[in-house]
Amino acid sequence: MGLLAPNTDPRDGIFNPPTTLSPSKALAVTPNPNASNSSNPPTSPPNDAFCKHPALRSFVRNFMGWEKEIMLKRAMMRHNCSGSLAAGVHYDKLFLRGSDAEFLTAWVPIGDCTARDGGLMYLQDSDQLGRELEEEFRENAKSLSDEERVSAFNKHMADGGYLSHDAEGFRQTQAKGKLKWLVNDFEAGDVVFHTPHMIHSSAANEDEKGRIRLWSDLGFYEAGVEVDRGWCNHWKNGDKL
Question: Residue 187: is its pLDDT beyond 80?
């Protein structure tokens, strides 16, 4: 059974509710675990052209003060379906611990996305909290092997590498109720940039028409620095990152 509702236009992306989704946390490009990497949209010519667009690249350089930037090859097309378990509360450094260099993430919604359509939400002024949490994880991981230490899925981490799947509960406990979750409407062409320790999460997809929310994440480093080598290859099923 496919993701799309029968007798609907694929361009509308209407979700098929009877579909049983594994707890992929919106990571899967396709529900088929045997799908080859060639089916991954982020390696397609149209997406490659967007990723190389001069306006995008020049903004990254100017924003970060870099002479030259590189983009990680591991860019994924993600989905958030109505009623599914999407990306939980996290900051991106959890998944890119293989390098201490600063990086920048670009979140790219595919098409218009209202605050109810399953887009991204950010915990207000949470960069410092993210840094404090990562320092705690670093201390707890000192006894682990190098491979386990840099993994978001080591024994000290929550399910799926996330901080929580309860956004409000996390705000009340870890942020002591002092910070707010920020949401917004996005239009096709918008790009949102965030730093490695900025805490964010997918919002619930409550689209009235049942449309699947699609987006892509792009990661940038300054050229010449040490990067997380695990993210230097194109995404593929089972890469455990």
Answer: yes
